[in-house]
Amino acid sequence: MYEPGSKAALALLEAAEPGDWPRLIASRREMLIALAQQAPRLPRTLIEHALTGAEPGLLRAIADNTALQAERPDVHGRLLADGSAPVLKAVLYRDSSRYGEQPCWSHAEVREMLARPGRDDPLWSDPELVRLLTGGLHYTHHTAPVVCRAPGVAAATYRARYDILGTTDRLHALASVAEADGIDAVAALLAEHDTPEAPRPLDLASLRAALEEFQSTRSLLTHLRARDIVPGHLLRHYATIDWAAVTAEHLRKKFAKETVTALTSRPDCTAEAARALGDIAVVAAAGDHDWVIDHAVPAKNALKALRGTRIERLEQLVADVLGDDPGAWRAMRVEATRHKGTIAELFTLLTARVTAGDLPDRPRPGEVPPPPAGGRLSLKIADAAYLTLLDAATPDVRLALLPVLDGPAAHALLTQGHERIPEWTDVLLALGDVTLLTCLADDRRLSAEEVTRLMALDVPEVSHALGARHRDWAPRSAVNCPDTGLRTVILTKIHVRGEIPRLRILLDEWERHGREGLPAMIKLTVAQSGLPAFTAAIRRRVEGLLAHDDEAAALAELRARVLDGESAAGQIALLRKASAKYKTVGIEHHDWHWADLLAEHRREPFADQVFFDLTRAPACPDDLRALADGMVRHWETDAEAELADGKPLADVLAAHTLIDQQTQWIRRLLRGGHLTWTDVLTHARPAKTALAVLTDDDPEGRKLLAEHVTAELGTAADTWQLALTMLPEFTGSPLELLRTANLAVGAAPGAA
């Protein structure tokens, strides 16, 4: 993140661009280079000026600006075409000094720029550039200099990187050395580290011919058959591939599986080549679904490759052949696993079996159990293939099939089906099948409301599945959970806030399961924070109740306290007490009586801070939240407190100097309508921090600033120079800065 001073300068420059960049750069070089290196946007005319090469430092900064190039691919392309010393130094210095960063320059692009200049190019007279190339780069581009024809560079790379250079790069380096340093230098290198593929006797033409031969299609096909070759590493040395020749060789004799994967993983692999090589996933991803259905084998692999994609032809096949017939689906379950032919042939086979009535009665429901809850989400090929077919059926058919599916199929459909239908929860709850409900509970996509309904069943298998799979528990989940084991899991994962919600948990546990488990429950800790799930005061209270001789009386006492606290009157009393002591209770996890609280607030308002915190609760109605959003948060900062007390806005802004990274209160007042951009530009200070408040989401503020910058600075270099020079230390407001610069230049001797 670039600093507020730089953000402020960018805000001015974007508002109205100066007319004379050379003069401005001469006076504010450091500021503008910092901007050019870090800002995600720059004025168009500044970029154009940098690309002329007149300011090497500025050009180097832009070449180093990853964010800008991501936003402006055209700028990246022009820098690549430029390939000058400033650009190369930015690329190479980033590579050597910022290990682990995501580079904005690809290895191929760096090689392209380094291969372009000849041996005697003036580019190589730059000592810093040569030092970077021969100093041993640390990251992505450390082998790129093998193509460089600057004296000494390719030789240094060959020596330093010999062990990791492939044959192609070694031959590249030797050819570059021959051109840059002479054949004797090549001979010396080979004496140190031999490359058997290098031709003998040595000469430049022979080296180039050897390199061309090694990169030829004939050589590629030979190496793809070699046992000691890693296909992925080999293919990196080939910028282009003759796919027709590769596929013809594969049809003659199939390549190994890892070789096919490496070939089809290349971005330039054509759909025709992928089909010929038999990589079903690549063809499916390319959208050639008819080929996958008609030609890909075996059918289960083809179906797996089509998973997650809606295909009309497959949907029609499923509807016509399988429909909602459980027998047909059972037959498909068996045949899809063992069929060696295509999907089309599989459906032809099923059509014949359905017509002949040759349908199995297995696998039956419950015969094969579902996988354990909370396990890996990856599917076996057969299960993934069957799920593709189930997803191709209509929602009504899928729902009708659920009770007759085997365990893995039902689990896959409910937890990983492409189209999740929330209404199925109602149907399955009404059906009451524990196996299906357990599968449903293992679905990470369940809504909070669905989790609550499943939790309320108090079925051990369902509760276990919920605890095994789910991570993002709502605080009220522990309050509403009837199962002790699941409740314990939740209490160790999240904090439940508030005395009454915590007591409700313990009361519910006592009423449902007796008091025997309470001593262990009140000692639970939340795993992530290590803090107790229950406060010391609650633990003492419950321990006292547990020690009571009359269990019924102790339970009644706890119940009375909880019911009183959960009532509307109890919650109002809690908020009134908090208002008197300015205590935050809105973050507590109550089941708030919103209508009663709103009526009470309108009768006699709660303290602003207490009411505001209350409306941050996720379930707060919009009308309550709207009341709070317009508040001046006088409890947050002194400035907001003074504004709430009626102090004039101009006086508040004048009295409080803005601090970098602490301007949230300005934005709050702007959002609440208590402050305008005219107020900020006129009164907020210092100017650099006030201008840094502007973001892309402030079109009104940017438009207003542009009007003032145009009026006060125009395109005059002197005025701009003075404004940017004063900006870092200027203590007044943005408008005062602009007017001061205008007046000072206008009053200077010799001013027009």
Automatic annotation (TrEMBL):
<protein>
    <submittedName>
        <fullName>Uncharacterized protein</fullName>
    </submittedName>
</protein>
